[in-house]
Amino acid sequence: MKPLLRAVLILDALLLLAFGLLFLLTPWTSLYNALLLVQTQPALVGQGFGVALIGLAWLALHASIDGSLTSTVAKVVGHVNWLTGVLMLVWLLGLHTPALTGFGQIIAVLTGVVLLVVGLGGVRLSGAVRRREKVRLVEAAAAERADKQAAKDAAKDAANKRDSGRVTAGFPAYRAEPVVEPVMPVTEPVSPVSAAPLHPAVDEPALTASERAARDDARNAAADAPGAPRPPFHG
Q1: Is residue 70 part of a domain?
Q2: Is Transmembrane set as a keyword in this record (predicted)?
């Protein structure tokens, strides 16, 4: 898109240079008569307008080389060209002024049409190029911000790694040893009710009550005898 705009600028520079030289030669009456053109009166105005057009042509040529000026100068020159073409068509076709012969009028009308088309084309191309440049600048700025953020993240990660390495080198590594809990033997409580007596009583159903009482008395007498073993807790 931008190379095409450069080509349009070169064409604009050539057109502006041609018209600038023509207006600069306003005092040359024979040239205007040969070209069937109307001279500008006074000649000083024509020559001043010619110098301005030559300067604009130089600016367009310089913008076609310098990329930073391409879109801006193309927009300005394009507006100048299509407005000039519209003025020429209005005066030549609408007002029929100046009065030109058939060939001169055809040349003037064609010149106005060329200026109109080239000017509008340059304006549209300059707008498209400017939009693309804005999008490119936004993308470049976003990419630059992303690169800066990535660099900051990388520096932060490197600093964290260095800090963790310093802590590991300054202090010994701590390893948690497994804690062995002592195993206590499980004992079941013995109920005093369920505990068996030291000398369980033998129930002898064959003895009568008097015989059982005599036996108990004999056992007690033997226990009370001196030198006889006594059971624990016996009074």
Answers
A1: yes
A2: yes
State how far the Cα of 147 lies from the Cα of 141, in Å rounded to an integer.
Answer: 10
In terms of C-beta distances under 8 Å and separation of at least 24 residues, what long-range contacts does 51-55 make, across chains too? 51/20, 51/24, 52/20, 53/16, 53/17, 53/19, 53/20, 53/23, 54/16, 54/17, 54/20, 54/21, 54/24, 55/20
Mean pLDDT, range 215-227, rounded to an integer: 68
pLDDT in tens, 40-52: 788 888 888 889 9
Single-letter residue type at 203: D
Q: At what angle do helices 43-65 and 70-89 cross, to 10 degrees?
A: 140
Mean pLDDT across 175-192: 55
Asked if residue 75 belongs to a domain, the reply is yes
Residue 32 belongs to a domain = yes
DSSP conformation letters of the chain? -HHHHHHHHHHHHHHHHHHHHHHHTTT-HHHHHHTT-PPPSSHHHHHHHHHHHHHHHHHHHHHHH-GGGHHHHHHHHHHHHHHHHHHHHIIIIIS--S---HHHHHHHHHHHHHHHHHHHHHHHHHHHHHHHHHHHHHHHHHHHHHHHHHHHHHHHHHHHHHHHHHHHHHSPPP-PPPP----PPP-PPPPTTTSPPSSPPP--TTS-HHHHHHHHHHHHHHHHSTT----TT--
Average confidence (pLDDT) over 198-224: 65
How many domains are contained in the chain? 1
In a domain, residue 90? The reply is yes
Q: What is the pTM of this model?
A: 0.55
Q: Are 85 and 123 in contact (CB under 8 A)?
A: no
